[in-house]
Amino acid sequence: MSGLFNPTIAWITLRATLTRKRALLFALPAAILILLTVALRASRPPARPWPSHVLGTFGFSVLIPLTALIIGTSVLGAEIDDGSIVHLLATPVRRSSVIVTKFLVATGLTMLFAALPELIAALIAGGGSAQDPASNVGGLITISTSKLALGLFVGALACSVIYNAVFVMVSVATTRAIAVGLLYVLVWEVLLANFVSGVRLLSVSHYGLGIANGFVNDPDLRAGLGVTTSIAMGAIVTVLALTLAGNLLSSFTLKGEPA
Questions:
Q1: pLDDT band at 8 (very low <50, low <70, confident <90, very high)
Q2: If you compute the radius of gyration of the chain from its CA atoms, what whole number of angstroms results?
Q3: Weakest-pLDDT range from 75-84, 155-164, 206-215
Q4: What is the C-alpha separation between 21 and 23, in angstroms, rounded?
Q5: 134 vs 136: CA distance, rounded Å
Q6: For residue 2, how many other CB atoms are within 10 A of its CB?
Q7: Cα atoms found within 13 Å of the Cα of residue 70, Cβ hemisphere only
């Protein structure tokens, strides 16, 4: 990993990403989630099983993918758009090192701006209860705050990794990375993955929910996959996306030198 991670590129990427105007958008989805959680906590009885469903659906289908989309397409896509990628590719740095370094920076920022707020929201929500599938009279099972928070946090960390691998790859593949990524999030993750069961095998949000459910065992999370399948598919998607991104960057051609 030391040969693939370049501290200089990481520092330049981190500084450039956080100083761009779009950096103001990083915290917006997290702020909405926390405000929504506070409002629901204040207005709904503790016995209502809302925390798992709300934090799982909004957090994994909206908060994390949108944050990862903004960050993942910023760390490399912005350089391609403004032409500064020319200077980076002209240096004697392996393209694989560029991809891995950008991916790690994007993943760390997404964990900070999405996974950590998911944990905070879960702690604010205060656990809750879920319908017991083994009960014939609609019984409830109590879920502790720490258990729910841990499960959602680990699932959110996993999603941060996988989503950023996908969006870094998209930023190399197309100059319309934001538009393509937003279409993917809205159509695939929000609509199809939540209503078509077969799609969940290729849904990053359900990988995260499956991993979270491995800790919580909560039917209200509505995880479409088991924990083993989620981990395996998440690892496969991450490796394939980064490999494809590296290959695409390796074949990236400079369209002209600056005058």
A1: confident
A2: 19
A3: 75-84
A4: 5
A5: 7
A6: 6
A7: 22
Res. 137 pLDDT band, cuts 50 70 90:
very low
Residue that the structure tokens 């032409």 belong to: 83
Identify residue 189 by its one-letter amino acid code. Answer: E
- 128-131/140-143 β-pairing: antiparallel
Render 24-88 in DSSP notation, one character per residue: GGTTHHHHHHHHHHHHHHHHS-TTS--HHHHHHHHIIIIIHHHHHHHHHTTTTHHHHHHTTHHHH
pLDDT at 144 exceeding the cut of 70: yes
pLDDT at 129 over 70: no
Q: What is the DSSP letter of 203?
A: -
Greater pLDDT, 25 or 123? 123
| 31, two tokens | 């702020």
List pLDDT tens digits, range 165-190.
999 999 988 888 899 999 999 999 98
Residue type, 79: E
Q: Which two tokens stand for residue 150?
A: 């841990």
Phi, psi angles (nearest 5°) of residue 242: -70, -35
Question: Which structure tokens are listed for 228?
Answer: 């083993």
Burial 32-49 (b: 16+ CB within 10 A, else e): ebbeebeebbeeeeeeeb
Residue type (1 letter), 5? F
